Amino acid sequence: MNPKEANHPIRIYQWDTLKFVLILLVVFGHFIHSYTEDAIISEKLYVFILGFHMPAFLFISGIFSKKTIQTKNYRKCFEYFVLYVFCKVCIFISKILIQEDYDFSLFDESGVPWYAFALIAFVLFTILLQQVQPVYLFVFSIILGCIIGYDDAIGDLFVSSRIVVFYPFFLAGYLLDGHKLLQFLLKFYFKIIGVGIFLTWACYIQFIPNATNLWHPLVTGRETLDKYGINYFWYRALYYIVIFLLIFSAIALTPNRNSIISTWGSRSIQVYTLHRGLIYIFYHFYNADRLLEHFGNKPTMFVLLILSILLTIFLSLPFWETPLQWVLKPRWKQKTNTKNG
């Protein structure tokens, strides 16, 4: 966030509120992903959510990385790497506790930690490419994302596929003025348009045959040429158009006032880091059969949504903030910064 944007606290509340909604969808998506009792329903919901929540997070990350990039603050990359490793360790510990196998590989990642590692690459790339004309850089990132699937060698190693596919969302956030964007989308008719776009996306996923089979590989950012053949370029281009529309719709529909939800949203990094391991543990001790046994004929997805809300709020409490800050910004580093100040 640049100094100019810092003078607009209402804008910050709006971003934080949106971050809470997005991290809630991340948690809900992982509850769904681990639940296989009703594969059709869970798959449709998973694709609907996965389509836009991580691109939206990366878009917001780009908006708030302006100062980091403009001042060439490489220390932020170190913090992201610490977050990446810590997230992997948390998942590793949860797997040990439930006695499940977990192949720990530092730089080969397909799960939750990919986001933190991708941020390292995005910040470094954008710092190094600051002198390139923004329009050319953005167009090039889109084209690169549209052709990456033609190379089967690009995959989960160094999160390479997702880095290339999702970079345009981070870059767009960095290039756009966050305050002006919110002012532009403040108009009421954009909210109406946003509702229409989300309803269209939901109806498409729900009613069009094979929609989930078509879009699931696209929204994960890890598909290869085998799924789409020579037309991959155009499928990916369509993906960018649809997801950017969903992101702007989500922003337009987010209220811009301070609330307990915006406070929780300001701590979304805690939820991101800790939730996946807890879900693994939950499903180990409380599987789908026990859920149905406990809640009877109540809709299971509704139960999972309630559990997602409770877990998201629980991990958003201030209690978790101190230990996580200690990991990301150790005391020795804080002391060094104090002396230098």
Describe the structure.
With 341 residues, this protein is mainly alpha-helical. It has one domain. Helices cover 74% and strands 0% of the residues. The chain is built from 19 helices and no strands. It has helices at residues 9-33, 39-50, 53-63, 66-70, 75-97, 114-128, 134-147, 160-175, 178-185, 188-207, 211-220, 225-228, 232-253, 260-265, 268-285, 288-295, 300-315, 321-328, 331-340. The longest helix has 25 residues, at 9-33. It is globular and about 55 Å long. The two termini are 21 Å apart. The model is unreliable at 1-11 (pLDDT under 50).
How are the SSEs placed, and which strands pair?
Layout: H1 9-33, H2 39-50, H3 53-63, H4 66-70, H5 75-97, H6 114-128, H7 134-147, H8 160-175, H9 178-185, H10 188-207, H11 211-220, H12 225-228, H13 232-253, H14 260-265, H15 268-285, H16 288-295, H17 300-315, H18 321-328, H19 331-340
Helix pairs in contact: 1-2, 1-3, 1-15, 1-17, 2-10, 2-11, 3-8, 3-13, 5-6, 5-15, 6-8, 7-8, 7-13, 10-13
